[in-house]
Amino acid sequence: MQSRDFVYVGDVVDVNLWFLDHPDKSGIFNLGTGRAEPFKAIGEAVIDFYAKGEIDYIAFPEELKGRYQSYTRADISELRASGCDVEFKTVAEGVKAYLEWLNG
């Protein structure tokens, strides 16, 4: 199953604001949730939001096999060691927040 460390843009903003408030902290940090969630979770969140729809699966393109990173998960241990305690949304929470904004 293909999974990614999807991060909600509002969480990225919150991390940047945290560093703005902590100018004594600096470095290069991975930014993600530290969790890998399947692509399917995005579709499920959209279906849950609208209370309708279904996921239609298609085959993975042959030309991308071996050239596509099918799993990512950010190591955020250095970010946490810096003191940054921003809580990251799950895919379901991030998609819901985005769709609420989009349909606002």
UniProtKB/TrEMBL annotation:
Q: Which domain of life is it from?
A: Bacteria
What InterPro entries does UniProt report for this protein, alphabetically?
A: Epimerase_deHydtase (IPR001509), NAD(P)-bd_dom_sf (IPR036291)
Which SUPFAM superfamilies does the annotation name? NAD(P)-binding Rossmann-fold domains
The record's section on Pfam families has: Epimerase
Which residues belong to any copy of the NAD-dependent epimerase/dehydratase domain?
2-32
Would you tell me the protein name for this molecule? Answer: NAD-dependent epimerase/dehydratase domain-containing protein
